[in-house]
């Protein structure tokens, strides 16, 4: 597995590239042009600027996350063709810069959804939290108000220009069913996968988070079965998934290790994180350690190891610990701890497979 780390860019992140450099085994930066709204073409010059900054610090930029899809594409409006053309140009520009994977999502209106960004745990750390009953009782506008007021930074999926048009967006989705969304996704993929393939890029859809409909908005990428359907929409290696254990794990029925084994070839990018799921369907993001949450992190890493996974992995989110002030879910410390936990499992599996490293052998250890 190739370890990567999400970074929001110079002046837009509390974490620095110098700090990331000191986390063992991180090879690449997962990045995006966060200042551009969904639907804009990403100019090659802006892409090359990020590439230079990252490469100067010894990182590759092979994975891009959150090349967001304009709502008109998800809604299937006649204007979608214009935005799809721009998306293709963006894919081409990213290909020219050496990008190999594009992570995106197809969730209507919202990207991830939480009710609390700083829920305190018994040890004093805070983390992102989802309260199921609250989402059912609160109206979306109130929740957006509460979350947006808590944000010092603009988060992907929660951009002000998107939230400004919330009423109009909800109206637009009123008669859009899950089947309509599937057919709009298929239309999009049929157009862009040939471009991605030509540019040597794998598209990797991120599962819906949480993996069920919210506020009456349909959601599709929620289960192993639906991932299978997505992969069949355009049956090509460039049509893949970002397997996010934290998103899919919110539904305990999801067999994530089974999905890894079934779809290994089509997973260019893995998000590995843990959450604790309660009986009432609330969930909180926890440390990566298995004992702290409900997700079988060891089983997941083992499944990747068994299938010979050579794709990219990132720890996804972390808690906020040691008084760190950072983007919600995107601090340095807990994500670095998560990486070390993942390496610990991976290295012990490698050692089992290959025997002790040559260095240890020569020391007769
Ligand atoms: C990410 C997603 O921070 C997160 O929760 O895993 O926001 C992800 O970046 C998007 O869904 C990808 O488009
Ligand atoms: Mn994720």
TrEMBL record:
Q: Cross-referenced InterPro entries, in alphabetical order?
A: Man_deHydtase, Xyl_isomerase-like_sf
Which Pfam families does this UniProt record tie to the protein?
UxuA
| Enzyme Commission number(s) | 4.2.1.8
Query: Kind of enzyme, top EC level?
Result: lyase
| Gene3D superfamilies reported in the protein's UniProt record | Divalent-metal-dependent TIM barrel enzymes
Recorded catalytic activity of this chain's protein = D-mannonate = 2-dehydro-3-deoxy-D-gluconate + H2O
What keywords is this UniProt entry annotated with?
A: Iron, Lyase, Manganese
Q: Which GO terms describe its molecular function?
A: ferrous iron binding; manganese ion binding; mannonate dehydratase activity
Family assignment? Belongs to the mannonate dehydratase family.
* Name by which UniProt lists this protein: Mannonate dehydratase
Q: State the organism of origin.
A: Bacillus swezeyi
Q: What is the lineage of its organism?
A: Bacteria, Bacillati, Bacillota, Bacilli, Bacillales
């Amino acid at each position: 597995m190739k370890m990567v780390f999400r970074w929001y860019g110079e002046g837009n992140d509390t974490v620095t590239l110098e700090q990331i450099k000191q986390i063992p085994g991180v090879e690449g930066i997962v990045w995006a042009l966060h200042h551009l709204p969904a639907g804009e073409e990403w100019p090659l010059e802006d892409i090359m600027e990020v590439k230079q900054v990252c490469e100067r610090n010894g990182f590759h930029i092979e994975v891009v996350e959150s090349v967001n899809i304009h709502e008109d594409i998800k809604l299937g409006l006649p204007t979608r063709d214009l935005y799809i053309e721009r998306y293709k140009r963006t894919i081409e520009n990213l290909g020219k810069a050496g990008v190999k994977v594009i992570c995106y999502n197809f969730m209507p209106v919202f990207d991830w959804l939480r009710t609390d960004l700083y829920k305190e745990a018994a040890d004093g750390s805070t983390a992102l939290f989802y309260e199921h009953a609250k989402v059912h009782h609160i109206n979306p506008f109130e929740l957006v108000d509460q979350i947006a007021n808590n944000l010092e930074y603009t988060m992907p999926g929660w951009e002000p220009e998107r939230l400004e048009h919330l009423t109009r967006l909800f109206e637009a989705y009123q008669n859009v069913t899950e089947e309509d969304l599937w057919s709009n996704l298929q239309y999009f993929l049929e157009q862009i996968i040939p471009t991605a393939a030509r540019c040597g890029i794998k598209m990797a859809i991120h599962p819906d988070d949480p993996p069920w409909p919210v506020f009456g908005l349909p959601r599709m990428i929620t289960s192993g079965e639906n991932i299978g359907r997505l992969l069949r929409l355009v049956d090509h290696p460039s049509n893949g998934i970002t397997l996010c254990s934290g998103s899919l794990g919110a539904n305990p029925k999801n067999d994530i290790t089974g999905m890894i084994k079934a779809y290994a070839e089509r997973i260019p990018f893995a998000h590995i994180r843990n959450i604790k799921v309660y009986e009432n369907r609330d969930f909180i993001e926890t440390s990566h350690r298995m004992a702290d949450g409900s997700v079988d992190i060891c089983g997941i890493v083992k499944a990747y190891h068994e299938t010979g996974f050579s794709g990219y992995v990132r720890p996804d989110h972390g808690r906020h610990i040691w008084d760190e002030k950072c983007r919600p879910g995107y601090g340095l410390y807990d994500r670095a701890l998560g990486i070390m936990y993942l390496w610990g499992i991976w290295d012990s599996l490698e050692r089992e497979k290959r025997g002790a490293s040559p260095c240890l052998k020569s020391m007769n250890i």
